[in-house]
Amino acid sequence: MKKEFYNVIGVMSGTSLDGVDLAHIQFEIKQNQWTFKILESETVPYSTDWVNQLKSAVDFSKENLEILNRNYTQLLSKIIVDFIEKHQIINLDAVCSHGHTILHQPQNGFTLQIGNLPEIATLTQQKIVCDFRVQDVQLGGQGAPLVPIGDRILFSEYDYCMNLGGFSNVSFEENNQRIAFDISPVNTVLNFYANQLGLNYDDKGQISKTGKISIELLNELNAFDFYQKKHPKSLGFEFVKESVLPLIEKFEISIEDKLHTFTEHIALQTALALPTKKGNLLITGGGAYNDFLIFRIQYYLPEMKLIIPENKILEFKEALIFALLGVLKLRDEINVLSSVTGAKKDHSSGCLYP
Fold it and tell me: pTM value?
């Protein structure tokens, strides 16, 4: 007998490296309709040392990755235990954790999210559902994006759901299938240049706004092969490190100009990615706070209604949806859509510990 009510925690760490998002969520299902309530939620920032390790891990040896994975699993376990104790959360059905993506190479049949080692269950003393991407890649899929099934189940009133995080991704219904894909890098690039000015990020896009567009750089960014590819498609930090940053660095222009040009690039690629330029577009993720970026997206989509939700959904939507993916796994129901990832079939993905 499947339950109607679930008490879980969703845990997410994204490529923008702002920290670990945790959300305590109650789900209810009645007559095949899911509803949710986000109770406590918080982002636990990484120390400078952890930010540097996670940034450079793409170049680690196999041995160093194994050490990092063990250390990160311990860090994540402590963050989860502290969150549970702080908010006095009891009777959890599971902690549903994404881990942190270090390598994502679906074309090579490989993706690595650290923090998903079995000992996380022992360290937290909780049932854990985690490691949601690996099985999809083994089934020939991109392993990403995984959020669209949650968009379909929890946010069906929107024509488009877009997340502006380290990368942007979008999901929508087309011919009764959920379609989703990564659009472009976002905060992985914008934060890189804000860091060069001694800032964690460009607050509201105020610095980007003061720059000028380099048309030549914009044209070269728009010429990347990735943008011509049909979905399913996804991006990893490797693309930024090997292709995007080296291209931008060829241009001897100010950081302000680089930020402004890349913001324009994001806005333009967002508009090009949407098959219909009308309807309503739900925007979540840290990039939703970048007023200048939102202004430029609206410029390219004048007939689209852009909706930025309340803070809890804006900041914790991915933690919320990974919590849902975990619950679907507990129910042995489909939580990854082949129409999105390109895998051989829809499937119920994730590891259960213990």
Answer: 0.91
- Indicate the Cα dihedral angle 79, 82, 84, 88, nearest 10°: -160
| Whether 130 contacts 145, CB under 8 Å | no
Bridge-based pairing state of the strands 110-114 and 304-307: unpaired
pLDDT tens, residue by residue, 4-49: 999 999 999 998 898 999 999 999 999 999 999 999 999 999 999 9
In terms of Cβ atoms closer than 10 Å to its own Cβ (0-12, 13-18, 19+), residue 346 is middle
Q: 327 and 96 in contact (C-beta within 8 Å)?
A: yes
Q: Which amino acid is at 47?
A: S
CA distance 147 to 322: 7
Written as six digits, the tokens of 84 are: 């549970």
DSSP state of 336: B
Q: Which residues contact 201 (CB under 8 A, 6 or more apart)?
A: 18, 187, 190, 191, 194, 286
Q: Summarize pLDDT for 103-117 with one digit per residue, the tens.
A: 999 999 999 999 999
Got the DSSP string for 247-288? HHHTS---HHHHHHHHHHHHHHHHHHH-S-S-EEEEEESGGG
Let me know: does 170 contact 277? Beta carbons within 8 Å.
no
Among 304, 309, 274, smallest CA distance to 289 is for 309
Helix (H) or strand (E) holding 104, with range, is strand 94-105
Sort 92 into a burial class: Cβ within 10 Å, 0-12 / 13-18 / 19+: middle
The contacts of residue 82 (CB under 8 Å, 6+ apart) are 44
3-state secondary structure of 46: coil
DSSP-H helix ranges across the chain: 48-56, 62-86, 119-124, 134-138, 148-154, 187-196, 206-210, 215-222, 237-239, 245-249, 255-273, 291-300, 311-330, 338-341
